[in-house]
Amino acid sequence: MGNDVVRRGRLSGERTGEMIHFLSSMAADRHIAEADILVDIAHVMMLSKQRILDEATTRPLLAALLKLYDEGIPESVFDDEYEDIHAGIEAFLIAMVGEETGGRMHMGRSRNDEVAACLRIRLREDLIRQLSLLIRLRQTLLSLAEEHRETVMPGFTHLQYAQPTTLAHHLLAYEQVFSRDCERLSEGYSRVNQSPLGAAAFASTGYPVNREYVAQLLGFDGVLENTMDAVSSRDFALETLSSLSIMMVGVSRLCEELIIWSSPFAGFISLNDAFCSTSSIMPQKKNPDFAEIMRAKAASLIGAYMSAAALMKGLPMSYNRDLQELTPSLIRGIEDARQSTSLLNGMLLTASFDRERMREEAGKSYSTATDLADMLVRRCGLPFRTAHSIVGRAVQNGGLDRHHLDEASVSITGSPLPGSMIQDTDIMDALDVEKSINLKIAPGSPSSFSVKRAIDERKKRLDDDRHRTDQLAMASKEAIDNLIFETRRVALEQ
User: Fold this and answer.
1) Annotated catalytic sites, by residue?
2) Residue 111: which of 362, 320, 385, 256 has the closest Cα?
């Protein structure tokens, strides 16, 4: 059993190396190791405040924990002989200060509430980082939209030419997608940042612990009320993975469009070589590999969420060891999201757009036909459905000139379009791509006027989100800084 301080009492059977490795969570626990030190420090500080630990025990314990905090956790602590990081750290402390002192740290606590607290502390930092990356990506999209307010491009439905739009309008759509992702993650943060400490195994403890005080020390917004819920629920992790999965759907969709746009068939965009690869056999190839891998990462993250949800759905209250297997899914999802968001931002910042090529395609395949139908409604007083049918029949017959429109009108209504109402110049104006775009001035539309208004509004929203994220980061940092400062004071008291 080696140095496992948890197993030595009740259990005596020897485990093979395979058994030890199978049960150990050390690989995932590296993710929460630093958080565990903070939780240990806060717990000891609380035990001291509540006079559960005396000063003679408190000071060397805190000094040893501060040494781990300052110098880092030694690699020996991560040995698979320990079931988890919590047992490894406890064993290390006992070796440093003796069991009489180190063996008292775990009073009034279980690994159940400890690991839940560690996950929440680490996750809130991960969420702040992800929010910052999303804000940076949104800033890039807004900057590109501002640069390309007048860059005309084709819009598509069903991947068929539909109506002309602008690159700015297209990019702003994605900015709003990622803005809602920020909303979801920010709202989720409030549910992550709740303390389970004091719940112990699940039924709390007979020691007079102060749950509110230890929550305050660690910068939590509050305490999870029910102690059984506190240790055995992982909905905060599921919510995070769900929100990140939704975010990655947006990332994947944008990457799909970048892949299509960068193909020779479209030629709308040239991706920086750093974000592309070539073929091992075809020397002429430039492949958008980064964007393709991001599409795959979206699937991986969705899989991480499904794995975590499937794990949770069959677990009774309260704690079950199955929960150990949720952490790798959470870690994988967070890392996939982080990398993808960061790299997508870099890919957009370094890409170049071919304005002429986009403009060339914008008017193809009768993409302004809707504007022509609308003009017939206004000038001739036709019902829209009738005008729609006339324009559609004219397209079917070969063109949108006056001849084909009159021919279509005869077949639909029995008579040609009234000559006094419609001139050839009216038809040309209705089919003009730029005029079509700038005619649309409703909020959120692609006209230069509407896009400028949207960019100004989105910048304000982005500034608000940046300020809110900075506040979250500052509150977390201040809490930890204050905890370490107060711990040093207590540890050095004579």
Assistant:
1) 158, 279
2) 320
